[in-house]
Specification:
The protein is mainly alpha-helical. It has two domains: 1-56, no CATH class; 78-139, no CATH class. It has seven helices and two strands, in the order αααααβαβα. Helix 1 (2-9) crosses helix 4 (47-55) and helix 2 packs across helix 3.
Length: 139
């Protein structure tokens, strides 16, 4: 809710600065951080980023909640192997890990990435790539 509240008050986002503050295990270079902000050079390009948090259902009667329930029921029927890397320190999605694991009947054993935040690709990209290679080799 903190991100949702912040995004609804903001008129413009400094995405490069936000990314530098969000990565936990390493420091993004200025060029790496700038790459995240490049598609959104000014407020005129940021409408989607500013509106997106409002689209995430926060209560059962929230617009979009029905579509999510339909999607969840479909996910439960899939017979696919799933590798679900998860950060043990993600403040946004962390509380949902156990729930999401129930959606996949063939889910791989828990893969908790220690000390990473929300942006796993930056915090633990090489580590996750190793897990993916091993997991794929076992299939």
């Amino acid at each position: 809710m903190g991100w949702r509240n912040f995004s609804q008050r903001a008129r413009e986002l400094d995405l490069a600065r936000m990314m530098k503050g969000a990565v936990r295990r390493r420091t993004l270079t200025d060029a790496e951080a700038a790459a995240y902000g490049a598609p959104f050079p000014s407020a005129g390009y940021q409408t989607g980023a500013l509106v997106f948090p409002r689209l995430v259902p926060v209560r059962p009667d929230h617009p979009g909640a029905y579509d999510n329930r339909v999607a969840i029921e479909k996910l439960k029927t899939l017979k696919l192997p799933v590798l679900l890397p998860w950060s043990d320190s993600d403040p946004i999605t962390g509380p949902w890990e156990a729930y999401l694991r129930k959606l996949f009947p063939n889910v791989a054993p828990p893969l908790s990435i220690k000390g990473a935040g929300h942006f796993l690709q930056e915090d633990a990209g090489e580590e996750i790539a190793g897990h993916i290679r091993r997991w794929m080799a076992e299939r």
